[in-house]
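Handout, section B. The chain below has 89 residues.
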Amino acid sequence: NKDAKTTIANTQFAKERGIDVAKLDEWGQQIQEQAIHRTAELHERTIGRAVDAVESLAQDETLAQLLELKRDSNPEDGISGEAEDRGSP
């Protein structure tokens, strides 16, 4: 990586513009920081909001009751919801 930066810094283009290895290192660091920041923003806008939405829905009593009714009327293992609550088949 340092060799590549040295090669770039030694080009006429870089010399004319005052670009040296330290400047390339600085730019690399800035790009990494921007990537971290943007990743955090993207996470908050997507995953963070989805988690908030699920938590809000879970607090909705009507939805909770509907989910409970669905579970009781459509058991996956053939055991009714009431039997599950009592702990017997």
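Note. The CA atoms of residues 11 and 17 lie 10 Å apart. Compare this with the example in section A.
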